[in-house]
């Protein structure tokens, strides 16, 4: 007898739903993958679902989805979005093509999940700490499972700590960078600076000294949670500009996660996104780094010039970059 006998194509699977499914319904099967009912299936009746292919789905209104980005199925809203929360949302696949904020549909390549070109939490980072290290506080990044955390302590001194990806990419590699962070402790004074983005290097004292960068920026003051954006191409610097988006109430839960994206497919107009929405699209020269020489890497940078200000921890849940042909 053969050790194995063909049963069915792995792209289409038998499925018996507890409740009736309509053709085109999205669902999650027992191995965790997303699936789509290819035809109506009555309750408690075996039918067929498919687990691969490109499908058109309803998209959540008001969010932008970028080509190649993660797509999640919002279980309660029956629509695609860019993240999941603590309910029954599940990973759907990767977005095919850009979908604007006003688009009602988007295309998703079901269950596809390629590795990013750079994953700073997977591939490694360079980190230099300036100041007096403290156990569980200021010092080199602290690992929490698959996340990393950066903090500053009340020691009266200049402190700086960063994470700069070992790997970099060329300016014309069409990069899209994604950062997901949780701000669990805001700065006690505005002596604190936080920068998140792409840069050609780092600084042991001051992120403004980095010659080429596109940053989201936060002046870590307890009374002001404003998120700013800035850029520098090595010659022309666009100063930090208020995005009008603030960090939410601080904390370490899922509800406190913020997503920051940088779309570098056009180096003369790098686009900034916070939680799936573009910010500062009309700000002159912001994100224009066409004159930069690169290469650029992922950077998270925290500093204070002096004093007893504290900050953090800032949990970094994702710091990734993908490149593509245009």
Q: How would you characterize the overall build of this protein?
A:
This protein has 326 residues and is mostly beta strands. It folds into 2 domains: 12-110, no CATH class; 118-322, Jelly Rolls, CATH 2.60.120. The chain is built from 1 helix and 24 strands. The protein has one helix at residues 120-123, and strands at residues 12-15, 26-28, 34-37, 47-50, 54-58, 70-74, 79-81, 90-96, 105-110, 118-119, 125-126, 142-144, 147-152, 159-165, 176-183, 192-199, 212-219, 226-233, 237-246, 257-263, 271-274, 277-279, 297-304, 311-322. The longest helix has 4 residues, at 120-123. The termini are far apart.
In a few lines, what is going on in this structure?
This protein is an all-beta fold. 1% of the residues lie in helices and 42% in strands.
């Amino acid at each position: 007898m053969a050790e194995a006998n063909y049963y069915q194509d792995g792209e289409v699977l038998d499925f018996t739903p507890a409740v009736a499914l309509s053709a085109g319904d999205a669902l999650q099967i027992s191995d965790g993958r997303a699936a789509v009912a290819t035809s109506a299936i009555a309750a408690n009746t075996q039918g067929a679902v498919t687990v691969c292919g490109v499908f058109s789905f309803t998209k959540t209104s008001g969010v932008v989805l970028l080509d190649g980005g993660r797509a999640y199925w919002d279980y309660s809203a029956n629509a695609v979005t860019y993240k999941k929360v603590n309910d029954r949302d599940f990973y759907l696949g990767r977005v095919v093509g850009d979908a604007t904020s006003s688009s009602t549909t988007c295309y998703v390549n079901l269950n596809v999940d390629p590795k990013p070109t750079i994953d700073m939490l997977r591939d490694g980072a360079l980190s230099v700490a300036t100041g007096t290290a403290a156990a569980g506080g200021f010092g080199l990044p602290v690992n929490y499972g698959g996340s990393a955390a950066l903090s500053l302590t009340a020691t009266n001194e200049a402190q700086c700590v960063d994470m700069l990806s070992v790997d970099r990419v060329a300016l014309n590699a069409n990069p899209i960078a994604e950062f997901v962070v949780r701000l669990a402790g805001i700065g006690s004074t505005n002596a604190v600076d936080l920068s998140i983005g792409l840069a050609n290097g780092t600084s042991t004292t001051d992120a403004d000294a980095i010659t080429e960068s596109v940053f989201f920026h936060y002046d870590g003051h307890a009374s002001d949670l404003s998120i700013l954006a800035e850029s520098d191409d090595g010659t022309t610097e666009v100063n930090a500009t208020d995005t009008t988006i603030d960090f939410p109430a601080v904390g370490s839960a899922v509800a406190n996660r913020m997503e920051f994206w940088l779309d570098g497919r056009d180096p003369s107009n790098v686009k900034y996104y916070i939680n799936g929405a573009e910010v500062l699209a009309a700000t002159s020269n912001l994100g224009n780094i066409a004159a930069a020489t690169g290469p650029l890497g992922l950077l998270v940078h925290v500093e204070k010039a002096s004093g007893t200000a504290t900050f953090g921890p800032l949990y970094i849940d994702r710091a990734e970059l993908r490149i593509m042909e245009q």
